[in-house]
Structures
1.
Amino acid sequence: MKKMLHIGITLGAAVVAVVLWLLAGSPFIKMQTGPEALNPEVNFADAKGAYISYEAAYPVASWVEEYYSGDEDRVLTKGYVIYDADREEFVCVLIPNPERSDKDFDGRLRGMELSAQIRAGKDMTPITVMGSLELASQEQADQVQKVLEESNIVKQFLDFQDSESSMESYFEGDEYGQVLENMCSNILNGKRQSEWYILEQGSINHLRTGDIKLCMVTALLNVLIFLFCLIGLFRGKKEYAAEVPAGAGDTWNRFFAEQSVYAEKWCTYNLNRGYRLSILSLVIPVVIFIALAIFTKNVDTMLTFSVPIGLLIGEVIALIMWWSQKSQSKPDKLLKRLEKSLRKELSSDSVRDEFIEEYVNTQQEWAFGEKTKDGMLWGKVGERYCSVFLWTGRVTVVDMTQLKKVETETRSETVQSGSVKVHSVHYETQFYYQEDPHRRKCDKTFYFNIEDSIGYFITLLRKRVGDRVSITHK
């Protein structure tokens, strides 16, 4: 099952990388090479699909292309009809987020409606727009044609035709006015444009530059995931062996072999849990962003924004969680921590050898253990030593020849986690030695999370110590 999951992740990463490259690869290459200035001798049709920079000199009409979802007072994208004097054609420019844009098309448009004398004091420098030219749909073309015919400039031309002074002031006094007069004459003479082209600022082949970068970053991350997963498939499972101290005999080998069984059992469980958590961490952000796209009615950007951003966030979180779980799921490292803790717990070599000798010779009927979603413990109740090993690598050993009394206690606590109260219960076994009968603090403590686990442990302990040690419950 684990290998099939590994293969599935490998293939999934490859598919995501390929799909995102097909969506945004060509625009990304164009963006890297940079826009080319559109020369006056090149027709709009010949520059279709190319990433260009265009000097918009004569904005003559505007319209709202799109409002923010659910808010018709806020403009998301605004369109401007630009007259190209060299080609004597129109082109449409779309400006996303016009309120935050530094391209003041509205100011240039107002300047076109002024008299030549007033216009001379205004900044009428052409505005550079960078994007790719795309053919407008028929619906867009009809809308733009209507907006152009209803523009204030055309209305002024009609109103001023009978006034020679007004015509001279508005349409014949400077170069801008002469261009606008020629444009209006063509419109009134019935000249219509057969094809309309749209140039959206910061957009290449219908993809905005931000979305292109997002798609490429997500694709690159999936390429890396694919390569690492592919290497992992060929390398296969890494075999490990418990490190036994130099000069140790067969007893040490048997002891570490027994611990390695528990260590591998916990690490396998922990790693599988890591896989599950990683998958959830990947899926949840993707689902959230897709749901947001549907709710805000931005379904057209789902594949180029919602899915990539969800995948990117989800995969980063999943990788962090998986690496975290994997670093804690290595049996050889767990065995090293157990050995180090055991040496600290029993600093005397002779005592440690005695404990290990008893442990390996104690039958499994004296073994106890517990595994929950958060941890695992195991140990044995020997004739002299009672021990517990934790998934964290900690070892606690009790010398039962020194025991005076044993107390068990049920502890319950409630922790506030945000707006949720988390209630937990754990069970303690406290060991008191004979050295100081008035000592209040216990010498050793075992912790259990399951009531049946501590019950079974106390049953084994009673069998070993009989009546010579007092076992009570607080």
2.
Amino acid sequence: MGRLEHKALRKQLVATARAMNACGINQGSSGNLSVRVPDGLLITPTSLPYDVMEPEDIVAMDMAGGHVGRHRPSSEWRFHRDILARRDDIDAVLHCHATYATTLAVHERGIPPFHYMTAVAGGPDIRCARYATFGTQALSDAVLEAMEGRTACLMAHHGLVVGAKTLDKALWLAIEVETLAKMYVHALAIGEPSCLSEAEMARVSEQMRRMSYGQAPDLEQAQPSARDLRGPVPKSA
């Protein structure tokens, strides 16, 4: 893999990394990004501040873990590589230390279906992956497990990871998950919020799927009552 290949993607990786910090979901040189290419993946380098990073600093990797470039790849390259190897529906992976998502993660707590937008990550909830030391295969295994059937998960005592088809969509999803985490943390200040039922979250997921194909929702269909929308109210934490 040549350093100058995939020039446009290298520029987009740098731009997206800087946007992560600019929009407040990341800070310093923490977090990392990757994108699939035909011969493997491109990934941000380790410990290089985004404001001085250039396209030539992006590291090219193959799926065996070999890399080419003037820097070492991010220490979290394993879960980037493993997500891309396992998931055909994901071509870009974004990891960040977003404040509210991490606040929940340090309590080993995911995001339940307290709000219908939780379905944006592909299921009724957003799980928190079990803890493992950063940069290890054990962490990658935990992330893969938590992202089964999902496009995002929290990482215990660590942060947030999302996957999408493009870098733009990955950034959008990370911002959405952080917004949900912020709302959930604030809701917890009042008490444990009630959650939408499994049946309602299935309806929400189907509605999202239909709208993503450009189909208008069937607003004439009979709507369930407010009571039907809610499952049992959890006990206060």
3.
Amino acid sequence: MIYLLLSILASTLIFVIFKLFAKYDINIFHAIITNYVVACTCGLIAYNGEASISDIPSFSWFYYTIALGALFILIFYLMAKTTQISGLSVVSVATKMSVVIPVIFGIFYYQESIGIYKGAGILLALVAVYLASIKSKAGLAIKPTNFILPLLVFLGSGVIDTSLKFLEEEFVNKVDIPLFSATIFAAAFLIGCGFILFQKFQGRFTFNYKNIIAGVILGVPNYFSIYFLVKALRSDLLDSSSMFTVNNVGIVMISTCIGVLLFKERLLIKNWIGIALAIFSIILVAIDIM
């Protein structure tokens, strides 16, 4: 339970930091690149195994982490584009609703059980995520021509979560979890540097120390959000479909409450309904495993 709670808290802290990025006019892309260095460093510090950095390419999960690192950068870029075109609420819903992908994967690939309470809890969780994430009375406004971007964010976010579950289950030893996480972030950093160089050659890169500082602040919770999620998935508390559901619902619920308390966000009636349904969905999932 402690790993699940820590994963939710770390992910929620990321939400708070991103809100502060907007307030202090941080270049999110540059901060993200820096954050990957810090997150990678956290993993290397936490690693207590006997392998050295030169041994990393020999691990069976190495090439998968490169692919995941590339996906991290790609999804971030798509999230930024979607925010510019369709708004932040669209991105929030697309990323949180993507929980359905690892849930379906867990049920069919790992033959995880799905009773009536758990099934109802998962469906309610999806409704709760939608209602809690939409901060406008009009709901989501997506032009048909722009639908592909949130769809790609939805698919990419779901693939990342599913891949983490699959790799930790099939390839990653318990002692290697910090190294596994660090390698994903290292791959994302190196690929991100390629984008920075491209911007430099185009004359669109401007260095600012505050973006570096922001990236350092973001890097620690970002690392632990992945580390604790993987640790939670390896525990016997919940199967993966229930774990991802509770994790995502918990992040949405706590993030929404923090938005009200710290950032004075005003919630609509449907947002409060979403929070209530989120709590009820967790109760239903918990009943199913008792």
4.
Amino acid sequence: MPIASFPGPFHLARLLETVTSALLEATVININPPDGVPAERWHHSMARIAKKRPYLLTNHLAAIRAGYLEPGTSCAVGFPTGAGKSITSQLKIHVALLRNLKVVFLAPTHALVDQTARDLRAAFPNDYALNLRRSL
């Protein structure tokens, strides 16, 4: 009697298992608080961010693993359009604000300053008094 075997369901299950572990590793809520940041406030902020952007890209994870969010680490963020410069900078700004520090951001055009200010107001709606202004 011939026996039929269908590898499709098993293969699909293995793929889903692999994707699940990769997704769990890339979640915003699984980012550990940087040094000097109160864990409870950090996790509250990350939970709020995760509602709009639950996962990070590999370039974000690589930057975080390299110490990007740690105090005293400075950098210039340069990713292609759509690669996540905004979320990367917002995470860094979260660290500074949660440590009660001030943040200065620079942008090359007024339009980009306006867009960034709008994004920051949306990212930090009630937690921080943002004094966002343009300097000519």
